Amino acid sequence: MNSAILGISAFYHDSAAAILVDGEILAAAQEERFSRKKHDATFPSGAVRYVLKESGLDIADLTAIAFYDKPYLKFERLLETYYAFAPHGLRSFMTAMPVWVKEKLFMKRMLWEELQECEGKKLRRKPPLLFPEHHLSHAASAFYPSPFEEAAILTVDGVGEWATSTIGHGKGTKVRILRELFFPHSLGLLYSAFTYYCGFKVNSGEYKLMGLAPYGNKDSERLEKYKRIILDELVDVRDDGSIVLNMKQFAYATGLRMIDDRKWEKLFDLPRRTPEGELTQAYMDLALAIQEVTEEVVMRLARTAKQLTGCRNLVMAGGVALNCVANGKLLRSGEFDDLWIHPAAGDAGGAVGAAYVAEYVWNGGQRKPRVNGMDEMRGSFLGPEFDDADVVRLCRKYDARCKRYQDFDELCKTVADRMADGQVVGWFQGRLEWGPRALGNRSIVGDARHPEMQKRLNLKIKYREGFRPFAPSVLVEDKEEYFALDKPSPYMLLVAPVQEKRCNPLPTGYDGMEMYERLYHLRSDIPAVTHVDYSARIQTVDRETNERYWRLIKTFKDHTGYGVIVNTSFNVRGEPIVCTPEDAYRCFMRTEMDYLVIGNHLFEKKEQPEWQEKKEWREEFELD
């Protein structure tokens, strides 16, 4: 072993840890999967313990530890921002300062205290502690594990220390940042402001806003009106993709809110939607307006990255890189030959990025040549895995009943048959996924052909808003049979149209229908994964990276003729994706799932003992 690097992200949202040994990623996980608190921002003790255990190393064995941003630079930005906007923001300043003075200004000391607690004993050696900049960590996470020897790099999020967007160039072991956009001018924060205004939670509800946008009326005068207001009153979009926000219309620089509600209500002639409030057409049109503006900014930034670097490949990271609608349009634009997005593009991915910076920039590591266009993320299956003994303990604890199949093919045939009958199955296999998407190891699956499947999954399994779309998992070799997509999409980060031959014609007056009338119209022969605009957020499944999931879908195809199924994350609304077999069984029993598969074990709901809880379980999870 020449090097071992521990990467950590923490204290904002989606804390995580990752470990590289000789430049190879061995393990990575988000703290929320262990703590069961969604978007957990605390120090990732559980994740650190896990990645160290997976690597077989102690902290003293590490070459370096890398934290994903520079706290002093962030503090400088905080002070300069409050000074620039004074006397506004005094309340926010008084709220923030005690935390910084007590904890964050002494980050090194705090990290060593937390790491020693993880170790459970006095550290026999303290490795070097490194602090790469936030957007350098994002850029590294996007480039180093990508399948490219050289690429343009685009990172876009809310804010790091000062930067909110960067354009960079990666080649071999070198990453250079060429352009930066600085706080408070931020595409991520602009999108989050609309997330808040439309009644969703900032830093977690942005994907809901993206899912709501297709319900907007593309031909309406209101949509054009909203876009004019955004571009005339809120943001100046430059030709190179840089933006200047009108800070008189935003409160996040020094306030405890994203915006002043009264100003926006006057601007849009629309009250801010309350959480769980009615979703009228006006909010759908507003969601579409900001989505289209976001797509245009991303497209202009990407063109600038191409001009500056001369590269035909693009890699992306940062929270805005999770906007898979914008990603799909960027890929289809033909600006680049190929596009790769880090599967944990948000703050969690900063842990991997920081480790890569330490390995290649600080340690002088050598990057391995790319082989067959494959990336280095191991399919993003980097979390804990469990064995038969864990299932035996689960059954003993809950008196659960299951059947163990010796033959995995026989299990797949049974599950495929149940799915074809309209049953919903929890599918738990192998190592836990890294990133926000379930990719076939902690998934809830069903038949994409079933006309009631989307409704049932939303209302009876996930307990969430009915408008939310579901993703298809499709055999990579069959992707073009169902979708207008000629590139793999292994991490569910690209949206593409459903093939026209699979689509049904729109009924008269479709755009004027109520939301749920449009939602439940059978748009194609795979209606459970066809969104209202005839698109889908696609996961392609490759036998090389996830053989068991591939075999399930292949068996379903052999049974039905369709090499595509519904895939949603194994959790309920407000809960992190399940990590352990016990998490999975608990979620299975709390919902109207029909079957649960853990490894080679099949649990049928009607055979389980009555499920009892001491309190209302939904109170465990904060709705997001």
Blueprint (SSEs and pairs):
Blueprint: E1 4-9, E2 16-21, E3 24-30, H1 32-35, H2 45-55, E4 64-67, H3 71-85, H4 90-102, H5 107-119, E5 129-130, H6 134-143, E6 150-156, E7 163-171, E8 174-182, H7 187-197, H8 206-212, H9 221-234, E9 235-237, E10 243-245, H10 261-268, H11 281-309, E11 313-317, H12 324-332, E12 338-341, H13 349-362, H14 388-398, E13 403-404, H15 408-420, E14 425-428, E15 442-446, H16 453-461, E16 471-475, H17 479-482, E17 494-497, H18 515-519, E18 535-541, H19 547-560, E19 564-569, H20 581-590, E20 595-598, E21 601-604
Parallel strand pairs: 1-4, 4-5, 6-11, 11-12, 14-20, 16-18
Antiparallel strand pairs: 1-2, 2-3, 6-7, 7-8, 9-10, 13-21, 14-15, 15-19, 16-19, 17-18, 20-21
Helix pairs in contact: 2-5, 6-13, 7-11, 9-11, 11-12, 15-19
Count of spatially separate domains = 3
Query: How much helical structure, as a percent, in the residues?
Result: 25-40%
Low-confidence stretches: none
CATH T-level fold name of the largest domain: DHBP synthase
**CATH-level-4 superfamily name of the largest domain:** Carbamoyltransferase, C-terminal domain
What would CATH call the architecture of the largest domain?
A: Alpha-Beta Complex
Rg over CA atoms, rounded to whole Å, is: 24 Å
Assembly annotation: single chain
CATH class of the largest domain: Alpha Beta
End-to-end separation: 43 Å
Identify the overall geometry. globular
Q: Which percent range describes the beta-strand content?
A: 15-25%
Q: What is the number of strand segments?
A: 21
Give the spatial strand order of the biggest sheet.
Answer: 13-21-20-14-15-19-16-18-17
Q: Mind summarizing the main beta sheet?
A: 9 strands, mixed
| Total count of helical runs of at least 4 residues | 20
Overall SS class? alpha/beta
